[in-house]
Design goal:
Strand order of the largest sheet: 6-7-8-3-9-10
CATH topology of the largest domain: Rossmann fold
Largest sheet: 6 strands, mixed
Number of domains: 2
Structural class: alpha/beta
CATH superfamily of the largest domain: P-loop containing nucleotide triphosphate hydrolases
Order of helices and strands: EEEHEEHEHHHHEHEHEEHH
Bound molecules: adenosine-5'-diphosphate, magnesium ion
């Protein structure tokens, strides 16, 4: 079996006396969607922060493609291929969808934003940006200022910008949050497509989406993974039902 793209080994992180992450190990394999579910306050966002590098663990390791990045900062992990969404601040509301994605492509190529105007006229950069926009289903919205997009469109714009980084791992914290049923269905279809680009660690409360997408589900409660398995296994797990699903 191939080496996991992302691996977390016995990660610990406390805030004062609270053990927000209490010995978590998990892995993400190629083309896989691994969903992480759990009640509010379980430690899902803390774990995402530890993986992305916003937070440092008290103990344990984070490996990207076999490389230990535990001490690497957010930017270094991004360069190593980790695309974390949704960092809304990265989207410039006054710029159009196309301009935002051109900026992302330019940034991914290590070019200074000082050259933004020439970049917009650069056919090669534009073509790359257009491809990411099409992938995210936003071609019809390319000339709209990002600030005028509907909520779900904005999330897709963030994914188009993430695609510019040629990511090797997506780490997504509640991509369906705040979406209606149509938006959630569209996002589900998009994530099902993106998993072929890079595997996805998906924190999500929308159980329809999780059950439709996930190859594996891990259940986090009080900073610990209490169960991990296929959708069928997790749905049949009595402890999980008591702790979380309420079925
Ligand atoms: P989830 O995303 O699963 O809802 P979080 O990871 O946001 O959970 O939070 C896990 C626990 O850690 C919660 O009890 C939360 O209050 C606490 N926590 C999270 N971040 C901090 C912080 N920066 N300082 C203190 N406590 C925190
Ligand atoms: Mg959270």
């Amino acid at each position: 079996m191939t080496e996991p793209v992302l691996e977390v080994r016995d990660l610990h992180r406390a805030f004062g006396a609270l053990k927000a992450t209490d010995g978590v190990s998990l892995s993400l394999r190629r083309s896989e969607i691994h969903a992480l579910i759990g009640p509010n306050g379980a430690g899902k966002s803390t774990l995402i922060g530890l993986i992305a590098g916003n937070l440092k663990p008290d103990a344990g390791q984070v490996l990207l493609n076999g490389r230990d990045v535990t001490q690497a900062d957010v930017a270094a992990r991004a360069r190593a291929g980790l695309a974390r969404s949704f960092q809304v601040s990265a989207v410039a509301a006054d710029l159009t969808v196309l301009q935002n994605v051109v900026l992302a492509v330019q940034g991914a190529r290590g070019q200074s934003f000082r050259f933004f105007r020439p970049a917009l006229a650069n056919a090669d950069l534009r073509a790359a940006a257009e491809a990411h926009i099409a992938r995210a289903g936003l071609s019809g919205r390319r000339a709209i200022p990002a600030g005028d997009l509907a909520h779900g469109e904005r999330r897709r714009l963030e994914l188009a910008m993430a695609l510019a980084l040629a990511p090797r791992v997506f780490v997504l914290d509640e991509p369906m949050a705040g979406m209606g049923p149509d938006g959630a269905r569209e996002m589900t279809a998009l994530l099902d497509d993106l998993r072929h680009e890079a595997p996805i660690l998906l924190v999500e409360h929308d159980m329809d989406a999780v059950f439709a997408l996930a190859d594996r589900v891990s259940v986090l409660v009080s900073g610990r993974i209490i169960a991990s398995g296929t959708v069928a296994e997790i749905r049949a797990d009595a402890e999980v039902q008591r702790a979380y699903l309420g079925e």
